[in-house]
């Protein structure tokens, strides 16, 4: 019985020693300083905001502290600070096992560059405004006209459709807003206008346009037209 009790005591002492060692390690680790900040962009490779800018935003929000324990308490605040930036769609901030402050940043995706009475800016894939930057200029169609973007999601749907289609993305160079929200587009390589009309039957209209384009290229008539009317979903009306 005495031998068994001694074994139990040794087991308890060993467990307590492990707990103490673990607690000491955690405390020591939490008091370590953040030695490095790493920024990783996820999604598209085009960089509209510099890593240095993101690091500076994080540094300002850390309030002169670099202890891991204190940084962990404000990770949510750090993410919120980055997500306020008009270039950033979503940011995840965390402390890695090796004591680095890391941020995974997804930038907004511009689908069109707008020129209106207030200046120039991008509209992103979610339909929100995105400022121009000196870091990178997106190769996207130009949109001419004044529009309340929050109240016209159907026009954003047209822009997203163009962006998602490899042919249209290369083919359409500009979109002009007409009265009653009609749209007129231009082509990269030819002089005709594309009268799209209102933002309805989007898929059908673009399928009609691609079918027309393929046929007009094959029979060498594409240079003869001045206007391509897509407003009638059952047919494409071409004007010479």
Helices and strands in order:
Layout: H1 2-30, E1 37-42, H2 51-61, H3 68-73, H4 75-83, E2 88-95, E3 101-107, E4 110-116, E5 119-124, E6 129-130, E7 142-144, H5 153-164, H6 166-171, E8 172-177, E9 183-187, E10 193-197, H7 202-218, E11 227-229, E12 237-239
Parallel strand pairs: 1-3, 4-7, 7-8, 10-11
Antiparallel strand pairs: 2-3, 4-5, 5-6, 8-9, 9-10, 11-12
Helix pairs in contact: 2-4
Explain what this protein looks like in three dimensions:
The chain is of the alpha/beta class and 240 residues long. The chain has 2 domains: 75 residues, Ubiquitin-like (UB roll); 130 residues, Rossmann fold. Helix content is 38%, strand content 25%. The protein is built from 7 helices and 12 strands. It has a 9-stranded mixed beta sheet. A hairpin with a 4-residue loop joins strand 5 and strand 6. The chain is elongated. It comes from Flavobacterium branchiophilum. Keywords: Cell cycle, Cell division. This is Cell division protein FtsQ.
């Amino acid at each position: 019985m005495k031998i068994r009790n001694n074994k139990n005591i040794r087991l308890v002492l060993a467990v307590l020693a492990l707990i103490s060692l673990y607690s000491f390690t955690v405390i020591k680790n939490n008091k370590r300083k953040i030695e490095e900040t790493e920024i990783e962009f996820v999604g598209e490779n085009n960089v509209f905001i510099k890593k240095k800018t993101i690091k500076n935003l994080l540094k300002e929000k850390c309030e002169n502290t670099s202890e891991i324990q204190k940084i962990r308490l404000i990770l949510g605040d750090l993410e919120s600070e980055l997500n306020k930036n008009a270039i950033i769609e979503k940011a995840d901030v965390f402390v890695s096992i090796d004591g680095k402050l890391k941020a995974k940043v997804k930038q907004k995706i511009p689908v069109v560059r707008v020129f209106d009475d207030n200046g120039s800016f991008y509209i992103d894939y979610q339909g929100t405004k995105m400022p121009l930057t000196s870091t990178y200029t997106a190769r996207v169609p130009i949109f001419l006209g004044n529009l309340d973007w929050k109240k016209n999601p159907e026009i954003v749907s047209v822009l997203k459709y163009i962006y998602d289609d490899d042919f249209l993305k290369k083919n359409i160079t500009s979109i002009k807003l007409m009265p009653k929200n009609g749209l007129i587009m231009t082509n990269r390589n030819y002089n005709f206008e594309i009268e799209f009309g209102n933002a309805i039957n989007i898929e059908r209209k673009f399928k009609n346009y691609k079918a027309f384009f393929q046929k007009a290229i094959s029979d060498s008539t594409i240079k003869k037209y001045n206007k391509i009317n897509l407003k009638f979903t059952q047919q494409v009306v071409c004007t010479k």
